[in-house]
Amino acid sequence: MSRTFKQVTYLGLGIGVVVGTMLALGFAAGWVSHAKTDLAKIENDDLAREMLLKASSASGGKSMAMATGQIDGDVEGLFVLDFTSGNLFCWVIDRRGGGFLGQFQTNVRADFGPIEQGRTPEYVMVTGGVNAAGGATTQGNSAQTVCYVSDANTGVVVGYSMIWNRTLQQASRPQQGALVKVAQAFSRDNSLIRE
Fold first, then answer.
1. Please, how many CA atoms are within 13 Å of residue 76, restricted to the half-sphere of its CB?
2. Which of 69, 93, 166, 191 is the most exposed place for a label (fewest CB within 10 A)?
3. Are the CB atoms for 182 and 195 separated by under 8 Å?
4. Is there a contact between 162 and 89 (Cβ–Cβ < 8 Å)?
C-alpha cells in the first residue's frame, strides 16, 4: 500500500469517526432535551391538577359590607352586614342552582357595645378559612370559614361561624341557623377573649 492511500484511508476513517460521534452526540442531546421537556410537561400538568385556587372577596360601603367565604368543600357563603340594623347574614347558594339554600344570621350590635351618641358604626368585614377539629355535632359540622367583623369606633374584632349540615346540602334541602361568635379581640390593646 502506498503512503498516500494510507493517509487518505486514515483521513476518511477519522472524518467518519468524527461525523459519527457528532451524530451520536446530537441524537443523545436531542433525546435528553425531549425527555426533559416531556418530564417538565408531566410535572407541570401534575402541579396544575394539584393547584386549586380558593379566593375570598370583600367589599364595603357606608352602610353595608359583603364578603364571601368557603363553607364546605365547593360550597361558598355570602356574608352581608347591614350597618344600620347590625344584622349579619350568611346565605349559601344551592350547588344545583335554584337560589340560596341556607340562611344563617345574628345581630352584631351586642358584641360591639353601645354606640356613642352621634356616632354611626364603621364596620369592616373579611372572611378567613378554618378547619375546625372536633367541630361535628348532631346538626352538622363547623363551617370552614370565619367571618371577621370589626368596628372602627370601638376597635373590637369578632369572628362568627356556623354549623353546616352537609347531608341537607347534598339533598338540596334548605337549612338555617345562627351565626355564632367564635372569637373576639380588641385591636387597641393586647386582650384576647376565649369563647
1. 11
2. 191
3. yes
4. no
